[in-house]
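Hey, weird one. I pasted the M23 family metallopeptidase sequence into the form twice and got a warning about non-standard characters only the second time. First submission, copied straight from the form history:
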Amino acid sequence: MNRRAWGGGAAALLLCAAFAHFCVRIVPAEAPSPLPSPPVPRSSQTAARGKLVIPVEGVPSSALADTFTQARAGGARPHDAIDIMAARGRPVVAAADGRVEKLFWSGEGGRTLYQRSTDGKRIYYYAHLDSYAPGLGEGQALQRGQPIGTVGSTGNADESAPHLHFAIHLVRPDEPWYGGQPINPYPLLVGS
């Protein structure tokens, strides 16, 4: 092989390496971040007290859809929640400060978590979870942004469409974890 051919091959190799380094972005398949991750520091959270964070890590407000009034059960009832679509295993975080009121399995919601707000007037309901965060238990205090589980499709959710079913109910502090008056979480999340 002559020197000129060798030089041309080396130059082509250098150009390919430079192209790969500066122009090609390799994006891995969507993989969940491992649990548990540390709670989100208060300084990096929403500045205004009482604001909600989107309860699925990495989902921007622009990806949310208002499904609160959509019909469910063949039109028999309204949804009274929103579905946040995400990859199975993506971390679910507490939308607000509070405490774990109930960890519960139901036919419709699958693996669920009920969280009571610090003032006792709201219940945040997280359903179709694939798993709970390690060590999570009833009565445990939660900070906004703290991992509580992972996105899944347990209960009556479509196996091919993992998501978090997220609802908010207004309750009196003495009311149980179930029931209450549903309110639409969508404007509370997109405004945050």
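That's the output from the first submission. The warning seems to come from a hidden character in my clipboard, not from the data itself. The helical segments are 3-23, 186-190.
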